Amino acid sequence: MQNRQLQDKTALVTGSTSGIGLAIAHALAAEGANIIFNGFGDAVMITELQKNTASIHGVATYYHPADMSKPADIAEMMSQAALQMGGVDILINNAGIQHVANIEDFPPERWDAVIAINLSSAFHTTRLALPAMRQKNWGRIINIASAHGLVASAQKSAYVAAKHGIVGFTKVTALETALTGITCNAICPGWVLTPLVQHQVDARAAQHAIPAEQAKRELLLEKQPSGEFVTTEQLAALAVFMCSEAANQVRGAAWNMDGGWVAQ
Ligand code: NAD
């Protein structure tokens, strides 16, 4: 476990108890980064996750239960990250939720939640992480946006607004750090079969009274020309690349990995 490229770095991955965030946390740990987990889930599962990550990869781990819709929770998490883990070198803004409804039926409180978790939380973590990154003159900020950060779909107003917003926020962060060793980029995944998408598959199957497998295929083919899901491991490998020295001049990118979705 010597000479791994992220040895002595600490990564905070928001929403890392599931899906894409979990895969990114594993991949960064495999490169030697200490991991701060965040996200909801069963306490026993989270303790196991911390223990297993630490023992498999020989890294330190920590968990903070901050609700990413709450700025005060985020501030508390960032100060604990400094106290317990010596700060955040790699910030992965990943926590996210979805709500699917026409605008006139969209519950205002769901709009507020999507914007708070998928967009505003990244502002709060970034503003609190940047001072220490500037002091070290090194940092990586990766915002998990979406193909919906580049193009829209009906019934996803809050999600599309938040994801377009985070692509813009990524560019501003990259410009404000352009003269430093801190980079900021966005990753824009297409469909990935995580719990977030499984809910949409289940809803479609129920709505059209079709089997789940058919709903999955239809959902994919509507948007993703490859007809295949992007995997969490593929996205995690891109995040590792963005953390590498080879990516020093990748700045302000909105990098899609989407089976051809936004090429159409
Ligand atoms: P997921 O549901 O598997 O994981 C979401 C994670 O966020 C979980 O750990 C959950 O506990 C956490 N989370 C949710 N609300 C939170 C809150 N208020 N505070 C703290 N943590 C919270 O979903 P996923 O598919 O892995 O999504 C991760 C990110 O990837 C999201 O930003 C999502 O928009 C984005 N994304 C997903 C897809 C896809 O097809 N799955 C496509 C493009 C973008």
Q: What distance separates the N and C termini?
A: 43 Å
CATH homology superfamily name of the largest domain: NAD(P)-binding Rossmann-like Domain
Q: What composes the largest sheet? A: 7 strands, parallel
**Number of DSSP helices?**
8
* Overall shape: globular
Kindly provide the name of the CATH class of the largest domain.
Answer: Alpha Beta
What is the percentage of strand-forming residues? 5-15%
Structural class: alpha/beta
Helix content: 40-55%
What binds here, in terms of ligands, is: nicotinamide-adenine-dinucleotide
**Mind telling me which CATH architecture of the largest domain this is?**
3-Layer(aba) Sandwich
Question: How many β-strands, per DSSP?
Answer: 7
Helix and strand succession? EHEHEHEHEHEHHHE
| CATH fold type of the largest domain | Rossmann fold
**Integer count of domains:** 2
Chain-averaged pLDDT: 97
